[in-house]
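Weekly sync notes, structure subgroup
Attendees: PM, AL, DS (notes)

Item 1: joint prediction request from the bench team. They want all two components modeled as one assembly rather than separately. Inputs as received:
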Amino acid sequence: MIAAFLAADVNVAQNVGFYIMAAAMLMGAFRVVTSDNVVHAALWLVVVLGGVAAQYILAAAEFVAVSQVLVYIGAVMVLFLFGIMLTRAQLGVEPELNNDGWAIGIPVALLMFAMLAWVLIDEYRGQVITDLSGERIATSTQRLSDGYLGDFLVPLIALSFVLLAAAIGSIVLARKD
Amino acid sequence: MLAVNFLLLSAALFCIGVFGVIARKNAVMVLMSVELILNSVNLNLIAFSLMNDDIDGQVFALFVVAVAAAEVGVGLGMVLMVYRNRRSISLDELSEMKG
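Output from the run, pasted for the record:
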């Protein structure tokens, strides 16, 4: 892994950016699941979602990155904050956020990560992603829209019905009557 | 860029999200952990799209974003309804359907 890292075809600036953002994302994710304050957890989730958007840009997926910022940081976080405000009498530290058997989650998560890491390192050890050519990156949004409105047009229409059903369903659920 | 970087990062996010789903009692916090899991899956899709120089991964990532938005809308609607009926969104108190 070190040898591949030091190979000449690895982009150093890209790797430095990746590790800085990965550290911020992992700390944010850790705080989301351990924070005692629901609002703070929601705000740490913004760090994770923004980091994911930055990783998308690093992976040459600008359109998905902008969609991530619009949908998650813009819309979903507002929904979460409204959900917190509408379901809680007082804001602030709440000690009873975890289940009684919350500690069982630690070995489950660690075992799952160990297994995933073993498989991934075994399969992709030393494999370097070759940088896309500038022409491929410049046409990525065009190819994305070709995929959306070409091969995946029927799933796109089906997805719009899913969104319509979700909107109607949540209005019906949340309506006072 | 090493291929395993993206995949290990998304595996770590996934496992943190699974821990949150198991450990948290507040229903809104469980939904946040589910968002972590969905984002790790999206990161995987984008990474494989980059590795294979194929745009289909990005198309699938956008589908997942849309489905996640729908899921959060319906999920928070259900949480609000439960809160209105029970004055609580602690998941361990919702045991009426226990056999």
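Discussion: Chain A touches chain B through 92 residues (CB under 8 Å).
Action: AL to compare against the crosslinking data before next sync.
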